[in-house]
Write a structure and sequence with these properties.
alpha/beta, Amidase signature (AS) enzymes, eleven-stranded mixed β-sheet, 16 helices, catalytic activity, AS_sf, Amidase_CS
């Protein structure tokens, strides 16, 4: 069906183009899947980005996708397009391992809602993306599956926790990937590897997952998720282009009231509106690396060229405060899991947590009181209102992804001081989940042959506006920005 041109192998194409070509019968889903499998075979042994790749299972899905095309069936928006799913997300018949040997046999009986949405949209589930143990760190290594490398530079993190997703995208293994984000786990890996990452508004993409049962004297009961997981965590897409991220986000969006924050219907958005962009270069807590400032300048210039009005805000205290509240609420909830992590976690996750808690203690004390914890939740509501009032109906924020470029591998294990530096640098990553707003990480510049992304933040359920602005940056960046890391870096 497809005459292969070595200069345009199918793995190089985006999800939007592949879905259109499969629908038009210009290529087959089997050909596309095989091309991606070939790319995985060529690059994954070095990068270790995808685990549990089952070629025959993927090709069987692709054959059924081609049969549906031939039968004239109604086709979903991602019909025949390969996608990866994350090892902390339930996929029927695969382990939800969290990178922990003790959970290696924890096979999911059903799909999480976001995976079911991708399957319903016609996607071919091609492999599982690696992550740190318990998906906690901004580095993607674990005892069960090993370390994932950054395709641009193996000495640097590919990001975490969706580091396998970002690394595989940057290497061309799949055109799109599923990830999740509670403290930057979609946006930061996208920034480390030069791809696009979307953190949706809380509730837009269902976070429902098959409940994990725990034994009690009264019998098995569902494991309750802590408040921060319910209120901060989201599922979302990563992709090599804004168009592909937009297509995947729409496919993943389903009304699902099983999610405590789920919404049955989404409000209409206004693509093209929101022409005012406030550049928040820093919040006064940490100095930006020159490469970060350069990317912000480039992105602001691109947006101005696209007709956006740019203003620069000298700090934004509410974002700084939101980042501090994140470290209070998330760590105190995470404290409840420490006995389990001590029992089954690997040495790296235990040490990372030890240093992270020590860094947080410098802000909140060794053991914050219940009054302090409740006060953090109360303050969160006021901060949400303040940010929504600031954004109004027409404003977006342009921020760094991090004050530093991609961290050196295992930087969080060096010392308490370095762990505190990482948390300070990640204020754009940690402020957003506390508030529940959407954000997009998009490539803006290549500095010293490494990608540097910027972040766009918008009002709740205004993802289309954010993606329009991200598209404006990509349109003006892409002529000199490679869609995948150079093969010379993968040797």
């Amino acid at each position: 069906m497809h005459t292969q041109d070595p200069a345009s192998e199918l793995w190089q194409l985006g999800a939007t183009d592949l879905a259109a070509a499969i629908r038009a019968r210009k290529v087959s889903a089997v050909e596309v899947t095989q091309s991606c499998l070939n790319r995985i075979e060529a690059t994954n042994p070095y990068l270790n980005a995808l685990v549990e790749v089952r070629p025959e299972e993927a090709l069987d899905q692709a054959r059924r996708a081609d049969e549906a095309v031939a039968a004239g069936a109604d086709l979903g928006p991602l019909h025949g397009v390969p996608v990866s799913t994350k090892i902390n997300t339930a996929q029927r018949g695969h382990a939800t391992s969290h990178g922990v040997p003790a959970f290696a046999g924890d096979l999911a009986a059903d799909d999480a809602a976001c995976v079911a949405a991708l399957r319903s949209a016609g996607a071919v589930l091609l492999g599982r993306s690696n992550a740190p143990a318990f998906s906690y760190r901004w580095f993607s290594t674990n005892e069960l599956h090993g370390r994932t490398l950054n395709p641009w530079n193996p000495a640097l993190t590919p990001g975490g926790s969706s580091g396998g997703a970002s690394s595989s995208l940057a290497a061309g293994m799949t055109p799109i990937a599923q990830g999740n984000d509670i403290g930057g786990s979609i946006r930061y890996p996208a920034g480390c590897c030069g791809v696009v990452g979307v953190r949706p508004t809380v509730g837009r993409v269902s976070g429902w997952t098959p409940p994990k049962l725990v034994d009690t004297p009264e019998g098995p009961v569902p494991l309750d998720m802590p408040p921060t997981v319910q209120a901060f965590a989201v599922e979302g897409p990563l992709a090599r282009t804004v168009a592909d991220a937009r297509l995947t986000l729409r496919a993943m969006t389903t009304g699902d009231l099983r999610d405590p924050y789920g919404v049955p219907l989404l409000p209409d958005t206004r693509p093209g509106a929101g022409r005012l962009v406030t550049l928040v270069r820093s919040v006064g807590t940490v100095r930006n690396h020159p490469a970060v400032d350069r990317a912000l300048d480039v992105a602001a210039a691109h947006l101005a060229d696209a007709g956006y009005e740019i203003e620069e805000h000298d700090g934004l205290p509410l974002l700084a405060e939101a980042a501090r509240v994140w470290s209070l609420l998330l760590y105190e909830d995470f404290r409840l899991t420490l006995p389990l992590i001590e029992q089954v976690g690997d040495p790296d996750i235990r040490e990372s947590l030890r240093l992270s808690f020590a860094a947080a203690a410098a802000v909140w004390g060794e053991r914050p009181t219940l009054d302090t914890y409740i006060g953090g939740w109360a303050r969160r509501g006021s901060l949400i209102t303040a940010l929504q009032e600031l954004l109004g109906a027409d404003r977006l924020l342009l921020t760094p992804v991090s004050a530093e470029p991609a961290f050196e591998q295992d930087a969080d294990l060096v010392s308490v001081e370095r762990a505190a530096e990482l948390v300070a640098a990640q204020w754009p990553m940690t402020a957003v989940p506390v508030l529940g707003f959407p954000a997009v990480s998009v490539p803006a510049a290549l500095v010293d042959n490494l990608p540097v992304n910027v972040q766009l933040i918008g009002g709740r359920f205004e993802e289309e506006r954010l993606l329009d602005a991200a598209q404006a940056i990509e349109d003006r960046t892409s002529p000199g920005f490679p869609r995948t890391a150079p093969d010379s870096a993968l040797q």
